[in-house]
Design goal:
This protein is of the alpha+beta class. The chain contains eleven helices and 25 strands. It has five domains: 51 residues, no CATH class; 99 residues, no CATH class; 71 residues, no CATH class; 103 residues, Sandwich (Immunoglobulin-like), CATH 2.60.40; 113 residues, Nuclear Transport Factor 2, Chain: A, CATH 3.10.450.540. 34% of the residues lie in helices and 34% in strands.
Length: 501
Amino acid sequence: MKFCKNCGAKLRDDSKVCTQCGTNQSESTQNENNTAHSEYTRKTPPSEPQKPMDPKKKKILFGSIGGVLVLAAALFITYKILESVYSPDGMVDDFNNAVANEDPAALKDAVSTDISDEEAAAYIAFVDNEIGFSQFGSWMNEVKENLSNDGSSPNITSNGYDLAAVEQTGKHLGLFDDYAVTIPKYNVMTNNNNIVDTFSYELNGDTVEWQTSEEKFNELIPGKYTFSGTGIKDGESFDARVSIDFADYDSSGNVGADLDVDLYYVSFSASLPSSYLYDISEDDISFNMNGEEVEETELPGFDSTFVGPLKNGEEYEFTGQLNFEGETFDMSPVTLNISPEDLSGQYNPELPHHEIEVQFDDEAITNHYDTVQEREAVEEQREDFEENLEDETESFIRSYFTALQSMYFMEDINEVEDYIQGDSDIESLLQSNIDNSNFENMTISNIRFSNYSRDGDTIEIETSTRRNHDNLDSPATFRTKYTIQYNSDDLSLIITNFEDL
């Protein structure tokens, strides 16, 4: 029997390899061992053969070695995993994939900036509409290449503002460079026009109330936004929305927001015939909305006056009245049910409004105006007539005397019919004179007036005349008192009686 030269295990005589440790048991080696062994035995007492290792100890030994190898492999794999996790390439890829896959939740996880769901979706929409996913991916590859070459990362810029940046923020676990993808936020501003007092909207599950008196709307990452909400004006609610598009970014470093509210105002434009002659003012016209009187109000920055605000999609009926020279004229009713499309192109975007063309009955107004003018002319004439009523009375009596001469000459009572009361005693008396041929060829001269008096519409006046006719031997002077009735409506005078004095 022989023993393994390496581990001492028992071997068959013809074994060339140890079945325990695998050592080659060649002849030369065996001879050397034998020689050495022989030499050794000549010098020292023979020793007993080496015993093989206990199998249990062998298992422990090989188990320990295996554990060390497994642990080393696990540590190596863990290192490689962490190296991949904290690799800037991996972070850039996660960011790019979230955008390309249009996944707002993944985008929120891929950046260190605290952004809302609405911001993540708006950012993706902006990239899709303004840049394109392919171009955006090319930019991301350039970022990775720069990081790999010199560790630098240029900011991703569009239209003058940064879309994203990759920055080293320190060490992770003391072994790996720590990187973060950030998206900057920008001020979103509005030009306040007081369309509403407040605007409420949802952002990341919370209700945000913006006071429109504040120029700043919010701070947001680049994107295309539409926030739907509620606008409040004078305590009344209106559907409203704010639209923001970072493609409209300006050099001031701010982004503009457009506030759109489902409301409008109404203004009135009255078309009146020759209104410049009529002296009609706005105060002469009143308006009703749905049966109730409304007042027009002034709005800051506008010269016109308005009624409102009114809601889009609701029906309103407008009526109105023109009060002109004691007469009331109704306008033709106007019914409105306005949608935003109806207002498109018809108003200044800062103030949505609809202009109502007010129509009245032009012919009726014109006729009334003519009547008023005539009445005013008569009134003016009356004032002048009454101011000079004594002179008018004297002129009237002079004309009467002329007609009276013609009556006796023509023997026709009709010559004085415009001066005496018809069907009266005076008419009967004059007719009798004609019939009896009294006072033929009468002439009247040297007319004098005295004792003029007026009591209401009754006038009395005395006259002195020089008369001559066929029945007189020579001219004679006559004094006569006339009673005259004054008609203020048509400014006429009529003799109702006369008496010789």
